[in-house]
Predict the 3D structure of the following.
Amino acid sequence: MQNPRRVLSVLFVLVVATLISQSCFAAAKPELKEHPEVGQRFIPTDVDWTNAVYQTTFDDAAELKNWKLEGGKRMSIESGKFILESDGETNHLVCWLKTEVPEDFLLEFSVRPQDRMKGLNIIFFNARGIRGESVFDPALKPRDGDFKQYHSGDLNNYHISYWAGDRGTAHLRKNPGFTMVAGGKDFIADAPADKFHVVRLYKRGGKIRLMVENIIAVAFDDDGKKFGPVWTNSGWIALRQMGHTVRCEYDQVKVFPLKP
C-alpha cells in the first residue's frame, strides 16, 4: 500500500507544476488592447464615391460570373440576394470577387446570417501570392476552403472576422502566419434575426477600420514593424464562411477607391 503522505506530496507537486505552466503560458500569450476608436462613429471623407471599382445589387443571376467559390456547397442568387451555403460544420468556403481592388479602398455590403448565434464570417483583403501573384495564378497551390491554405499558405493578406456567432468579439489577423493584431466588438450576433447589417471595411495604408452601421467594431494601425511590412499592394477581396455558418445572404456589394 502506498504511503498516503507520499501520494499527497506527489499530487501537490503536480498541481503546482500545472499552475506554473499555465501562468507561464498566459504570460507568453500576447495581450491586444482594444483600440480607443472602437465604438465610435466613423464615416470616411476620402472615399471616391463616383468611381466605384465594383458594385452590384445582385438583381441578375449573371452576376455570379464575377465571383469564384472555393469549397462550400454552392453560391447562388435568389430574390436579389447573393447566397453562400455550406453542407455543414467542416464544409468551409471562400468566395473571391474576381475584380482586383486597389491597395486603399472602402468595401461595403449588407449581410444577414441564417442563424446569427451560430457561425463565423470573415473578409480577406489585400490578398496576393507571396511573390506578388494574382490569387488566381495557377502556380499557387490549389485551395478548397481549408482555412490554413489562406492564412498559413502561399498568400499574403489581412483577414477580419466581423461576425462570430456567440463569441462576442471580432478579430483582425495578418497573414501568412495567422497573427492576431487587433480585437474588437461583434455588433451583429445580438441584433434582430431578420436584420441586414451594413458592413464597411476601410483601408488606407496601415489604417484599417471595420464598421457595422458606421460604428467602429475593429480598428488597427499597422506600423509596418511590429507585425512585418504593411500590405500596401493592390489585391483581391474574399468573403469567407466557416462551415457552421451554413447559409448567409449578402446584398449591395460595393468597392470604392480612396481619393489621393
User: Anything to note?
Assistant: Confidence is low (pLDDT under 50) at residues 10-30. The longest helix spans residues 4-28. The chain is about 10% helix and 40% strand. The two ends are 81 Å apart (CA to CA).
